[in-house]
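Pilot study result, target chain (770 residues):
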Amino acid sequence: MNKNVRVNRNYLTVKDELDQKEKELDGKDNAFSVSLLSHPSLSSSSRSLMSGSHIKQHMVLKNTDIPRMLTNYEYIFGKHSTGYKKTKSEYEIIAKISKYSWMSDHIYTLIVYNKNTDKYEIIEKKNIEDLTENFCYTYNTDVIDSYMVGDTIPKDTVLWRTTSYDEDMNYGFGRNVNVVYTADPYSTEDAIIASESASKMFTSTESTTIKIPVNDNDILCNIYGDSNTFKVLPDIGESTKGNILCSKRRMITLQQLYDFNDRNIRKINFNSDTPYFANGIIEDIDVYCNKELDELPQTPYNIQLIKYVKEQKRYWSEIVDVTRKLIENVPEKVTKDINYAFKRGSMIISPEYKWKMEDQIFSNMIISVTIRKDVGLSKGSKLTGRCGNKGVVSLIVPDKNMYYVEKPDGTKVYADVALNCLGVINRTNNSQLVEQEANRCGDRLCDYIHFTAKTLKEKEDAFFTFYRIMNVEQMKSLRKYYDSLESSERKEKFFTNLYKEKTYLHVPPFFQIEGKSMFDKFIDLYKALPWISDVDTLYINRFGRKIPVMRETVMGSEYFMKLKQNSKKAFSVCSLSSINEQNLPIKSKRAKEGLELYPKATIRFGIQETTNFLIGVEPEFLAELAEYYRSCPIGRRLLAKKSMSTKELEDFPEPEEKMMNVNVEILNSCYLKCQGYALKFTTTDDVQVYDFNDTGVYSHTDENTGEVFIGTNFEYEKHKIEKKVKEYFSTEEFYVLEEQDVATYNKMISDKVDEEIEKKFQLDIEKFRD
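Predicted structure:
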């Protein structure tokens, strides 16, 4: 090899390194990342990859479950998550500064002393974690709220945790739901039928922050108060009413007596006021005020706002006082968080610093309100299991209208979701059937122990036979715990609790214990416990009576997650399709700013939408759709006119109404708009466009008379107009005028010619070229 040639050894040894890694990781799960929360070996590879994306996109629910068919990696992922705060040292609480004096445990800041590092630190307590868009999750803060000033927080104390954790810090990211597979039309194309109970089970939290600028001549209406109390918006912890957060009214001198009387100030004038829309519970209020307290008018309109300004000043003043003492007395023991809090608080309470909005200092104040709300399932919500079996909720029905089975004691167990039976085959996803069957067998075991088995020996044999076949290692652990229960009463209580809590089965994500597949384990289980293979009859209530399902099917539990995608994200109430009032396909931020109850963004016809449309319609139809709803001004006007007509639209558009390509017109309109010009569209063929500065001389022949005219294009058109005008004025009614006042007659003709030219020639092309 040439010594002057530089060779990257990584490219030469990559095969050897891969071989080495394969030997190191053989039989281990270390390299599979988020796939360890699912069972990729039981699903198609493409769906397994999709499942990893789904886990990253799941919503944090208000209440979560541990998967009944677990991989045992849930705890490890939860341990390394940022969803909880655990103390790494022993802390002593020096000060507790509440943001709201009347709600001391809502939001506050703790100044603590770290006994291990001999440093002073800050711990900020909050109830929700804001994410992108409207997504958020809530914290359980019972532990940190229980401590007072002077208390010592032990090491490894979990101060707060998300709702993904239970009291024992077991991690969950979804819910165990009862699933049936059906051919119901509402489950076509992998749609999901959900029950009302399932909708509540998948409740998550959303949050939004609305900023309300209040100028010196603005007043917030008294929509939350009464004749004795002026209240412009809900207080912390209160809910909005009628989807309205507040309403802003401009002070107009001539209308003050009417606008601000006691009755009208409690009403919203939707013609002149600016209402801000929101729905939920008030989580936090920040008032960014550029005036001192003594500069704010002490009027009833400002009473509530002044209260929050005072609380904000008090909160930051206390932080500044505590941190200043630490910085002055023990500067070597102060962390950077203490310094930052002192600097930020000093700037907030200082009259020399002013708040800015979009790099501009505003005169009065901006009110920032954070609202949170709990949201369940709705039509368009997206659910998925752990094997890429995603689907969109198409229908939410009452529990009594869902499929159900009856227990031996008559108890009805309803299905939570109904999936399409063809989805398993189309996606080659046997994982979801394996999970359903494993949990169904577990339910049959619980029913047998609770209703059929009479002696403790029968219960023990059935229970440990089940786990010996499905997972012998788990059986050994359970046996060890069971044997530690000394009395028969405690063992009976163990099985009573089993019926309530159900079975939990450890199934590794890749490499099965004993090398047996789940299919073979089910066969062994059916042989050892024949009654476990019995299928319960499925019923459904229709026409006021109980009807058994003719097709033999089963109901079992599967683990489902709620994804971030929902129908609200692309929802719009725009009534004129894909353009706005300015005839432009642009989006609006008014809904995000709270100025509209629902988005009015234009409907998007992008690459994916167009491709999907072409699956079922002809390209010509899609082109017409674009013309009449978006790209053609004449087409939009014609469609609106036809829609208002009493005639049927079956034959619309008629052949003579077919539009032509107007891309050139649209581009010209865009170029002209920045120059102050606008195109004028017409439905007649009389309007023509000529270059006024075209000096070319041409020969023009009149088709009717054969008259030859030599001149420019414009001169010829002007000549034809003059000829028509003179013919019009040559009638008898103008004869007397021509005889008496020739000058007036000629001026009338000249003015009429100019008028017709102005109508016919719409644009100076030379200016457009410039």
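One observation from the pilot: The mean pLDDT is 85. A full batch analysis is planned for the follow-on phase.
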